[in-house]
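Q:
Got a chain?
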Amino acid sequence: MTTTVDSTYLGICDNVHLRRGEGCLYDTAYYDEILVPLHLTGSPDSPAIELLRPVIIEQLKLENDRSRRHGTSEMCILKLDPSEFVKSRNGHLSPRVSLCDGLDTPSKRTAAVKELCERFRDTLIFSDVCGLT
């Protein structure tokens, strides 16, 4: 049996057009939004695993505030102020988000991200992307 892949699906999977400016990545498809890399750990050598749009960054700030109010561990470390920028492998200073050190195994990271995404879905925060089905 031969499996075929719908080329229209592939066309929407990688539709980010990036440019670099002042140490930050910009997504030209989303009106020059600054994209912030999400790193697996807080280590400067940790690879970026995703690029986050500003709307996601704002929600992660609220999630950290929520965690502090409830006395639970934060999921992300947000380095968004220029005084906190981290030098990337190519020498650029840029904002950075990383998963907290306590999320040090694949299963812990998976559980934390799953809980966050389910909360986003259940509260309809991003209903156009992950609404109730």
